[in-house]
Model the fold of this input.
Amino acid sequence: MQYTLSIIKPDAMKRNLQAAILKMIEDAGLKSLVQKTIHLTAEQAQAFYAVHKDRPFYKQLWESMIECPVSVQVLYAEDAIKKYRDLMGATNPSDASEGTIRKEHGLSIGENSVHGSDSEKNAEYEIAQMFSATELIEAALKIKLQ
Done:
């Protein structure tokens, strides 16, 4: 079993697409371990995207992530990272394949509706940025008890 972080970004949240995106995720065979809606602070968004801090789009990226609340989920499945990245589609929605989240809901490279971890190492880092150990343990126990 593999875990990955999913974020439904502000551009999708403002257009009330959370339910539609979550349905696409579920239909693709990815399960949600834990989910919440949070409003990131500037500091949280900057830390989350620190890997891009020397890139020209960094400021625009983190600023866009604090415009309104985002929906964050820890998804799991066999090969969850690849499965979710395939479902997300190309960063540029115009390059994304039919049936992907970004093709269906993305507006532009910057407003591409979702984020997903790109490696196991980044998934661990990103999940820890968004969820406490207590939240993760409680969610795992609930699933185990079902």
Observations:
- The two ends are 18 Å apart (CA to CA).
